[in-house]
Amino acid sequence: MNRCSGFLNSHHSLFSGYSRAEVLDLACRVSVREKLFDPAGYFYRMKVDLKRTSGAMAEALLAAEEGLRFIEGKSDSMTPWLQYQLASLMVGIGDFERVLPLLQEASEGVDVKRHAKMQHESLRSMILGERGNFFLKIGNTDHAAFWLDQEMEAAMECDHFDALRCSKLNRTRLAMARWSYEECLKLAREGRRDHQKRGIVDSVSAQFRLLEGLSGYHLKQVSIEEVVSILEDPLLGPLSILAPLLRFAWVRTGDGDLDGARTILEKAREVLAGISSGSTSRDANHRRALHDAVTSRLERALCRREEKPDSKRLRDCLLASKMSFDSFLQVWETVPLIEGGVGFLQYKDQTRIVGELLTLTLEVYPGNDGVGRAFQELVRAQALGTLARKLGVKVGDEGLLSRIRSRVIKPNGGLIVFLPGPDQGHVFLVDQETIRHEFLPDRDSLLLARDELVSQILERPGFEDGRVDPFSTMLVEKSARKLTELLLPERVQEHIRGLSSIAVVGDDQLGWIPMSCLLLASPDEKVAPRPLGLTHAISYLPSVPVGLHLARMVREKKIVKNIDLNLIYFGDKAIKNHPSWSKIPFSSSSLNKIYASPRKIKISQSLDPATLKDVQVLQFLTHGDSDPGLPRPAKLLMSGSNDFSDGIFDCRDAEKWTSPPLVVLTACGSGRGQVRRGEAGVSSFEGAFLSMGAKAVLSSPGDLDVMSTLALTEFFHQALVQKHSPAEALRQARVRVANTPRFDHPYFYALMRVVGVGHRPIF
Fold this sequence. Notes:
Strand content: 5-15%
Strand order of the largest sheet: 9-8-10-14-15-16
Number of helices: 32
Helix content: 40-55%
Radius of gyration: 28 Å
């Protein structure tokens, strides 16, 4: 391959008058005609790189597909390279269906024992990095971090500069995706120094400069002029610079520099006009929608600055935003479904796009009319979530609120819908009579308060004289009040006090909000507020469209008089296959006593789908685990019987058979999934069981205490058999557990949650 490159460079004079693209086209045709498979693969690889750098993504895709068709199975050394390039291009344009299979094939085709060992080791590292980039694109930063860690190890093993610089660049992108600007700035500067030391100037070093400018700009360490000069680097393709331009315009508008924002936006328009024709429709539609969102934000700021704002300008802006948003939604419907889901509200800049559309709608249409219109736009976006599409949910605007009130919200109940945003968020509260809207603080503020509370309730508290340490409880209450104030504005809190139940949508965009721990401010200062989970029946819904679908399925189901519980218990038999896990300290006889009730109970240590035909409640009592190498990481320990020869039950196994109406997962981390904004539950057992017919799932995102959890589920079943809804049954169980001095802490009673239709009796 080096000879091929050397020939082109040494005989450059032979090709004078021809562009590099024309020379590569000729080289590809000649090598194909002469059936020179290895050189052909190399020339196609160079051609793909050239097309991609110039921003011609569609042409780069065609070149990669064409080269792969010719050399696949005939060039062991070059086939993995083109497979990797094709997968990388598909990640870049958001076409995710073939990405992981292509990367897997490329990984299997890498053979470092062949010639060019260093290049193949470098390729192996790059394949791992592209897996990380794939998960970054679909909004799964935890999974991305796992693969980028693998990439870093591989890059260090081969000690190849190309692999090391790509690894550092990918980790910088991860820092950006996590909004860790200080880490991004540090990594970008380290990468830039590495390039300067080695005297290398190429597109990768230009990307380092771009990322350094992005992070430095956010920290007010780089001026607009410096950033624009970085974006004018000829080594950066137009696709690389458009999104930063739009983000700069967005930030400058928020900072009040409207003239500077207008200048940057005009430059973005020029770039957009120059590349839309050569791009895929999905990519072009996304950029256009983001451009209209930035334009809308700037126009709103300009109108606020004027003494007599022109309302017609905002209406025209809203019309343009809606047109591009409608086109954007239509294109999104063609995105292939993948395991674990693609978070619609996380993909690229969707949160900015949707959030700005809601804000502009509220400004153009004040009052209840605007709130209703904005709410419908948000529901339309949620209908494109993976779980909604998998279930075939279709949601029309006509009669939306009446359908929600009749199906999802019970009498004296409400629906809370969150949409956190980078600058400001939205919260909607719908009840049987009204719909309300309030703005929320920026997402970072919410995340800090949420993380503080979650870290305290996931940790087992200390004890003092047989009671929970009061200092631990005090810390939880302090953090709960702080998050409540940020997440639920006073007007929303005031209305929630008068409700008996709430369904929550959008909490996943912050990585699970423990609503049961929030403390509503009491009108009477003498009365201490109680955790929301003890006063209100709470359930979580993946989205409003999925909630409507599940509620309709529950309503159409026949009422069952006799409730059967099939308790799947894996004890000694399973532990023998997994000696590293502790023994479950219960036998079938002891469990029969714990769950004693006037109904039929089946306790077994094996799962046979044929026996679940008439079972209404399926409960797992076992160990839970998590595998970050899986798109849906949660796993349950099984006995190794039936179809589970490896002794592990995961989400794919849950999707092999029709689920009972109610599934109770008494296992640590059974509700864990990757943080996926707009995809609540789809990357966990909750989404797997709901997609296979379950109406509600009880699970936990954290580790569980055995004794308190058994007591909680015992009380839950006792309330359930009295025809209470799952959410109300869990509320009553929480109250009984919390009244026990030893368990008077959220760690013991607040980690189990109801996902799905929790406010309607399933039986």
